């Protein structure tokens, strides 16, 4: 018997070509969701679990707004997951100001830009889920001070932005897995928050086992 995939919900996954983005795309695809993937570099033959690819640099505010507006003309986004990220590979004392700016602009700026673009339509519809990713570096090996600091900004952003959006039934949360983490476990958590949960908002969801 042929199994027919019925797609009745749509998720936008930013960073769809990364490890976590791919795991999330696979999970949602297998659950029958329509998956729209965003990334700076796209290979349409790389991942069969993404239904539609859209090139987008999250650091470009105008570009993000135009991209989301174009997507919203065709789809109603039920959920958004940003799995894109970056790390400071040179250590605390050796990272210059430009590299720090890029790191912060990618992590905090990219999430802010994406949230600014997707939130108006979700508020109008009085429903939606926005999920971010902020790895927990406290037990990670190496010099991760700046990466931890950059991702830590998302905790404050989600707690404040999430409370504002909850008034319109849009639930915003950030997942914080301990580094190194299992991408499939993170994808499971993303799916739960996007598909099953109807209450959690403005929370830092720890996936650390501690």
UniProtKB/TrEMBL annotation:
Entries under InterPro entries matching the protein: NAD(P)-bd_dom_sf, SDR_fam
GO molecular function: oxidoreductase activity, acting on the CH-OH group of donors, NAD or NADP as acceptor
SUPFAM superfamilies assigned to the protein according to its UniProt record, in alphabetical order: NAD(P)-binding Rossmann-fold domains
GO biological process per UniProt: fatty acid elongation
Residues that span the membrane, as ranges: none
PANTHER family in alphabetical order: BLL7886 PROTEIN, SHORT-CHAIN DEHYDROGENASES/REDUCTASES FAMILY MEMBER
Similarity comment: Belongs to the short-chain dehydrogenases/reductases (SDR) family.
Name listed for the protein in its UniProt record: SDR family NAD(P)-dependent oxidoreductase
